[in-house]
């Protein structure tokens, strides 16, 4: 199983009077590039939004949290194996063949603990069973690994899986200025609670460029259906986060360029370079408090769509979703 096409995507979202991505090394201030006065958001933060959304929607994710603490990979894998260790119907779907299921039965113990001990080990009884288990669990159980991949540092499962969906760090298209409050806020960092000022961005229009790679999807089993889940989760998760510091974030635009065969990710470079932002008022950088204060120019991006779409061109198909206040731009 794999996705049908290589793709590039552009995602814009706004953040107003909130903290899109706190930096624990800077009193949890919003991440900034102070050379350019632009706001930054890591790909890890965006993936966390998506994972939390998928989990809330009932999906089983691998890179998980319990409260504010990260669930260890070892415990997550053991938990998944405990649920299925004696379910032959489920295991057959994961292994994909009666032959591999028989190999599993050859090493299976009398209970889940003894079975897992033979698998999650520095010297697993049958490495082929471990490999098949990991491939099957990723393909059938964990959409976040199918999307983003992971480095597995687990006894008997030391392997790095490259995710088909990758994103750059996001940055704001406008200059961003921080507001600080005298309010003292509790800041979580590596499980420890500290106290500091409550810093927020005044207004930030953030842009992310990402790729969906067909060849990598053949390794994880990412499907077109998974990509649709990703699009939906990316769009909805930004505003669905209920925490105090993450309120007032809203999606604005998602554009995906699906390429014809023979064309690959990055064909048009970073799609953010095809969007420009200016200020409606002269010397108004510090006054920006909403999208209405900015002038967005998508003309270069529209030119690419118009001139490069067709059976003999780079773009086979494009997917566009916009918020109501951006509909007139396309």
List the helices and strands and how they pair.
Blueprint: E1 7-18, E2 22-23, E3 29-30, E4 32-33, E5 38-41, H1 43-56, E6 65-66, E7 69-70, H2 73-84, H3 88-95, H4 98-107, H5 112-119, H6 127-140, H7 143-148, E8 149-152, E9 159-162, E10 165-167, E11 170-172, E12 178-189, E13 192-212, H8 214-220, H9 224-240, E14 249-259, E15 276-279, E16 294-297, H10 299-307, E17 315-322
Antiparallel strand pairs: 1-13, 1-14, 2-3, 4-5, 5-11, 6-7, 8-9, 10-13, 11-13, 12-13, 14-17, 15-16
In short:
The protein has 330 residues and is of the alpha+beta class. The protein has helices spanning 43-56, 73-84, 88-95, 98-107, 112-119, 127-140, 143-148, 214-220, 224-240, 299-307; strands spanning 7-18, 22-23, 29-30, 32-33, 38-41, 65-66, 69-70, 149-152, 159-162, 165-167, 170-172, 178-189, 192-212, 249-259, 276-279, 294-297, 315-322. It contains ten helices and 17 strands.
Question: How would you describe this protein?
Answer:
The protein is built from ten helices and 17 strands. The strands form five sheets. Strands 1, 4, 5, 10, 11, 12, 13, 14 and 17 form a nine-stranded antiparallel sheet that branches. It has helices at 43-56, 73-84, 88-95, 98-107, 112-119, 127-140, 143-148, 214-220, 224-240, 299-307, and strands spanning 7-18, 22-23, 29-30, 32-33, 38-41, 65-66, 69-70, 149-152, 159-162, 165-167, 170-172, 178-189, 192-212, 249-259, 276-279, 294-297, 315-322.
